[in-house]
Amino acid sequence: MYSVTVNSQAAVAAEAPTGTSIPQGSPDSDERTRDRVRDAVLEHGPASAAQLGSMLGLTPAAVRRHLDQLEKSGVIEVKLVRGSGTGAGRPARRYVLSSQGQSGLGNDYLQIARTALKQLVAATGDGAVKVFAEQRFAAMKARYAPLLAEAGDDVGRRAEILSQALSADGYVASATTLHAAGPLQAVQLCQGHCPVLELAAEYPEFCEAETEAFSQLLGLDVRRLSTLASGGHVCTTHIPTGRSSAEEPREKAKLDLLERQ
User: Fold this and answer.
1) Nearest-angstrom CA–CA distance, 4 and 102
2) CB-CB contact of 170 with 193 (8 Å)
């Protein structure tokens, strides 16, 4: 789900050099454990504190202490995730690596990707990035389509399954129903994390291709209201579920007005 991977299991198994003893609780020991927690967030995030503690064999108190320190340092960040639908209750806390954390591990992957896209454009023209982005999300559609097919024509349920699939791929997604009934009924799909954020900020074709993929998966026109790449707090997609085909042009005009505000 991320472009950089670190084997946290190898980090767990790593031992101090032969002949070297590092007392538990020492600064070196704390730093090593914190690095293990960071690597686990990178490899398995978005993940809860309980999940990380279980992976690393740490007590809840210990893992939360290291998570708090990493969050204060800006290496990781918390995404609040609500359950699908309109269920009440406190949102769950999930940890992901921040942009600063990614940079701290090295951003060679980002520079390589940028260079590759620039060379692709130079070799084949300005439309190359659009084609590349569409191919990337075509693979997503191929994986998600069988899952959404289980919901039949129930667009609300399809949106919920899409949210779950996105979360499994690291997008920290949620689906919330707006208006319980009537023509204004809709689902708001939010994504709190974007694995290709830096590239999408430079190449909006990625966001456009993703929006089109959602539309095709759900079987109706959807509208992107905000994106992380353009400075939004989350990526928000409006999915109308309560209007008829005859109402679609009018509702589309309302969404156009909302986007311009």
Assistant:
1) 8
2) yes
Please, what are the domains in the chain?
A: 8-83+90-97 (1.10.10.10), 127-260 (no CATH)
Judged by DSSP in three states, 97 sits in strand
Alpha-carbon separation of residue 85 from 153, 158, 164, 178, 188 (angstroms): 17, 12, 12, 9, 9
CA distance 226 to 75: 25
Percent of the chain scoring above 70 in pLDDT: 75
Query: pTM here?
Result: 0.62
CA 16 to chain centre: 35
Say whether the peptide bond before residue 249 is cis (omega within 30 degrees of 0).
no
**Percent of the chain with pLDDT strictly greater than 90:** 43
Tokens 């009924």 correspond to 185
